[in-house]
Design brief:
single chain, about 230 residues, alpha/beta, two-stranded antiparallel sheet, 7 helices, 7 strands
């Protein structure tokens, strides 16, 4: 475990009158609410993307955050994993979640990206066992790379469709391996920009085909979690 946060101790509940900025003022995991501990009602998950991968950019500018794992290749990805699980532990967060592109650098080929994802899964497996933090869900980033500028499941290029399907499969395998409770489909680039540049019927057929493949594979590998579709 790293000491990126310079010796900070685990955040504790201190009540609404506390002036400690690194304490919970209202979240008391042990408080009984309707017969259950508050922690059982509020199953927080720290998202890798928002907390570690996002560079702080917006439509008018680029990176504003400086994180030591940016541009660090696999060494940076391993450092990011160390820091992530340190944060999860400090917060007492029961879960985390991620896109594949959040945790591993992009490879020069699908095979290399998959190999890197599996290497990070090895690290996650050990850290889950060490800390008790669990995976709520995994998902595939099918929107950031320019190959998906015309969609993933709805892309008219069969090579892109196949790449997307293979990426989903790889991520479902890792999610199951890590004991993930759900798998998320997030169609960040799916659909059309305007009705003038699309064949809507074809797009719907392709999306339906992809969803059917995901469900079939879920049953094939015996994944017990839910498949969630996140609207964009």
């Amino acid at each position: 475990m790293s000491d990126f946060f310079k010796g900070l101790s685990k955040v504790q509940y201190e009540g609404p009158d506390s002036d400690n900025p690194l304490a919970f003022h209202h979240y008391n995991p042990d408080e009984i609410v309707m017969g259950k501990r508050m922690e059982e009602h509020l199953r927080f998950a720290v998202a890798y993307w928002h907390s570690f991968a996002w560079e702080g950019g917006d439509p008018f500018g680029g990176r504003t955050f400086e994180r030591p794992w940016f541009d660090g290749g696999m060494d940076g990805a391993k450092l990011k994993a160390d820091v992530a699980f340190e944060l999860f532990t400090l917060l007492g967060a029961p879960y985390f979640c991620f896109h594949d592109a959040d945790v591993r650098p992009e490879g020069e080929s699908f095979a290399e990206s998959k190999k890197r994802l599996e290497a990070l899964a090895d690290i996650f497996e050990n850290k889950i066992a060490e800390t008790g933090v669990k995976l709520l869900w995994g998902t595939a980033n099918l929107f950031s790379n320019r190959r998906f500028m015309g969609g993933a499941a709805t892309n008219p290029d069969p090579d892109v469709f196949a790449y997307a399907a293979a990426t989903i499969k790889a991520n479902m395998d890792v999610t199951q391996r890590l004991g993930g409770e759900n798998y998320v489909l997030w169609g960040g680039r799916e659909g059309y920009e305007t009705l003038l540049n699309t064949n809507l019927g074809q797009e719907m057929d392709q999306m339906g085909r992809m969803l059917s493949m995901v469900v079939d594979y879920k049953h094939k590998i015996g994944f017990s979690g839910a498949i969630l579709i996140e609207p964009k």
